[in-house]
Design goal:
The chain is mainly alpha-helical. It is 82% helix and 0% strand.
């Protein structure tokens, strides 16, 4: 049943993103940024943890999950280090994902020969 919940949760988040693309004139960058900010805000008010508990990876892998991780990392760091945690907590919590994106982006850039579309 967990796989079904993950699929449904991720599918709903993707469907909302697709509806935003189809029904608004927002750019994809604005939608992606909005998803990250929404994840931070939903975690800040305590709602997103329930979504994560139900949807698992379907809630933590999309960009809402990145915002959730940022907010959770900041809250943990502030509890441990005080005000300095505001600056360090988000990056500490998401550093593995950021590093993986950089490394895999570099590998893709080295392996794929870019070309112009004609």
């Amino acid at each position: 049943m967990n796989y079904v919940n993950v699929f449904i949760c991720g599918g709903i988040l993707c469907a909302v993103g697709q509806l935003l693309i189809d029904l608004t004139n927002w750019t994809p960058a604005r939608i992606l940024t909005g998803y990250v900010v929404a994840g931070v805000l939903l975690q800040a008010v305590g709602v997103y943890q329930y979504v994560v508990d139900w949807g698992g990876a379907g809630a933590t892998v999309p960009l809402l999950g990145f915002g959730y991780s940022l907010a959770r990392g900041v809250a943990k760091a502030v509890a441990e280090k005080g005000a300095l945690g505001i600056l360090t907590g988000g990056l500490t919590a998401t550093s593995a994902g950021i590093a993986a994106a950089v490394v895999f982006g570099l590998i893709a850039a080295v392996l794929v020969k870019p070309g112009y579309k004609r």
